[in-house]
Amino acid sequence: MPAVNLTLQPRPQLDASVDHAIQAIVAGATVGETCNTDLAAGPWDFDSRPGYGPGSSMGDVIPTGSPRQGELPREYREASEAELDQRIRAAKATLGDRVVVLGHFYQREEVVVHADYVGDSFQLANAALEHPDAEAIVFCGVHFMAETADLLSRPEQAVILPNLAAGCSMADMADIDQVEECWEQLAEVYGDMDETDADGLVPVIPVTYMNSSAAIKGFVGRHGGIVCTSSNARTVLEWAFQRGRRVLFFPDQHLGRNTAKAMGVPLEQMPMWNPRKPLGGASVGQLADARVILWHGFCSVHRRFTVDQIEKARAEHPGVRVIVHPECPMEVVDAADEAGSTDYIRKAIEAASEPTTFAIGTEVNLVQRLAADHPQHTIFCLDPVVCPCSTMYRIHPGYLAWVLEGLVAGEVRNRITVPDAVAEPARAALERMLAAKPPAAPAAAWENAS
């Protein structure tokens, strides 16, 4: 039988826009499910309401007094996607080097296309340092990220958050009063928190995830602690164990537990601290034996991923490579093939030389973008329900156009500033983090035997 020449048809180009996918689902133009049909509306519809807005954090309780965004002018609310794109490009061209736009991996595609730098919180913290001559840094992320940029930038630089309602429910799960109270209770158990033992170690080193307020970072800085991200969590814990008998890790319990477990810390030496209970709900004996005290916080995006989803992916896609973020629950990380930061996930996909099927457990905007950028692979989100980060999704091109055109007109809108009393110790904690760089190999991630 003669050989037959087969021409493989290229896959149709995937649309990187999660917003387009949600609009199609809500309109009934495509089969799919979203966690809230309100995601199809503009975020300005929710600016006057309390809460984080539709999406993964919509069930979380927002603290009283959380920032609200004022009304966006009608011209931005009613502009088409194409018009907003053109206005943003024109404003950026006019401003030139006077402005730098930073975009987190979890931002919607319509915003990311305008970012000068796209990355995770660790990378963007470094990027903020690289533009000392820019008059303004527009941070398309969430509130704590803009605070961090303000801490690391020069005093005369304006850091702008396009939508003040873009907070973070995880960061809000540890407020400064709760953390101060926790520290006082721990001092009753451990004694003088500044006194070193025979090995030169203090009782506790506080470690806060980047996803925390400037006030929390300031607390950590005052008490000899350090900030971490999912990229350098292991490196930071190693740093902390060189200085303290144990670590108080907040606000994300899952990143702390998964990282410490991968370092060999037994689960029984990682008690949970619930700020609503005396001694966090732990016994004096548990605290005495602790190596890592985990704060009762979590990311509502990554809490959506389950072992059942992984098992379903393996059943439907034999040979699938499952990679999840370390903010996922321990059982999910254990069931996956690998776990690592958003940047680790991106690099793992880029490094795959053969067509591969990837099931990814992280925020859907990043997953959709990776699928569009790497059509040689099959890439899908473990959670079949389209449910983006509620607060990242509050940044819309309309707000980006509004703040950029404000700068063109000489007006700084939505500036984020950290008070000096908080900024100095918070900056010290961040500088320790920036100095604690992970090795060149992605040591912040780990592989499972499955």
From TrEMBL:
Pfam families: NadA. Binds 1 [4Fe-4S] cluster per subunit. It catalyses: iminosuccinate + dihydroxyacetone phosphate = quinolinate + phosphate + 2 H2O + H(+). Its EC number is 2.5.1.72. [4Fe-4S] cluster binds at residues 168, 299, 389. InterPro entries: NadA, NadA_sf, Quinolinate_synth_A_type3. Residues 46-71 are annotated as: Disordered. The keyword Transcription does not apply. Its cofactor is [4Fe-4S] cluster. Catalyzes the condensation of iminoaspartate with dihydroxyacetone phosphate to form quinolinate. This is Quinolinate synthase.
